[in-house]
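Case study.
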Amino acid sequence: MEHRNDTYYIEQVLQGNINAFSHLVDRHKDKAYNLAFRICGNREEAEEIAQDAFIKAYRSLKNFKKKSSFATWLYRIVYNTAASLVRSRKQRVLALEEFPADAADFLGFSGNEEAAAEDYRNSLINFALQKIPEEDRGLITLYYYDDLDTEEISKITGINKPGIKVRLFRARKKMAEIIVKVEQKNVFYHE
Amino acid sequence: MFFTMNKHEQYEEDLLRKFMNPGKIEKAPEGFTSKTLTRIQIEAQSSGLKKGFFVRNRMPLISAAVIAGFIIIAVFIPSGNTDSSGSAIWQNIRSLEIALPNLSNDYIQNLTLPGWIPYAVTAFLLLGFIDRVLSGFFNRQEK
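After joint prediction, the assembly is written out as follows.
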C-alpha cells in the first residue's frame, strides 16, 4: 500500500475526494482516541469525542493553515473538545478505596497473569488521571504516551512552556502519590 | 528530559514512565474509520443539498410580506372613500360589520391611551394567527 504524507491527502480531500480523508483518520485515530480517553476516562465518550474531532477537522480543512502539522492541529481539537466536555459535566471524585485491590482482581477479566498485571497498571493510571484536572490529563498523555516535547504540547494546548513544566511537575507529583498510596493500600490489604 | 530533576522527582518520573509509554496507548475501537467516514459522507451530502436563502427563510418572508400588505392597505385606503383601487377590499371589510365594542367601564375610558391601541392589538392578534397558520402549514410539509 502506498503511503503518502498528510499534506497529499489533505489536498485530495480539498479537491473533493472525501475517501482520502480515511487515510488521515486511519493514521491518527489511535492517538486521537487515546488522548480523548485519558482526558474523559470513558470509552464511549472517547469514541464520540475522537469522531467529532475528525468531523470538525474535515469541516475546517480549508482553513487549515499548515503552520503546524495536521496531527498537532487535530490533537488540539481533540484536547479542547474533551476538556470542555469534562468541564461541562459534574464529576464525582473517586475515593482511593474504590480502586480494585490488586492485579489479582483483574485475573477474572484477563486470560493470564501478565495481561492482568498490564490491565491493573492501565486501570491504576486511568484512576490516577481522573484525580487530576482535565487539562493536566491531556498534558500527561501528550508527554508520556505521545512522547512530545513542551514546544509541541504548547502548540496543542495553548499553554506556554513554563506553564506546561509547572503543570507537569504538579500532575506528576499528584499521580505518583496516588499510585504509591494505592500500592501501599494493597500491601496492607494482604497483611 | 527537558529540565533537571532531583532524586525524588526522578523517582516519580520513573514510576510514571513504568506505567505509561507510547507502546501502551488505547487503540480506537473496530470500525472507527468507517463510522467516521459515514458521518462525514452524510454531512457532505446534506451540505450539498443545502436549501437556498428564500427556501430556508420562507416563513418569516411570507409573514413579512403579509404584514407589508396590511400596512400598504391601511395607508392607501382612505376612510369611507370607496373610490380607490382597494375599494373592493374595503367594501368587503365593511360588509363584515366588524365593530370594536365600546368600553363602558369609566375607569378604562378615562385612561389616556392613544386611539390606535385597540387597532394595534387587533392587528397583533391577526398577525399572530397568520404566523401560526404558516408555521403549521410549513412544518407539516417538512415532515
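Observations recorded in class. The helical segments of chain A are 6-14, 21-40, 43-59, 70-88, 113-129, 134-145, 150-157, 161-190. Residues 34 and 46 of chain A are 8 Å apart (CA to CA). We will return to this complex in the next lecture.
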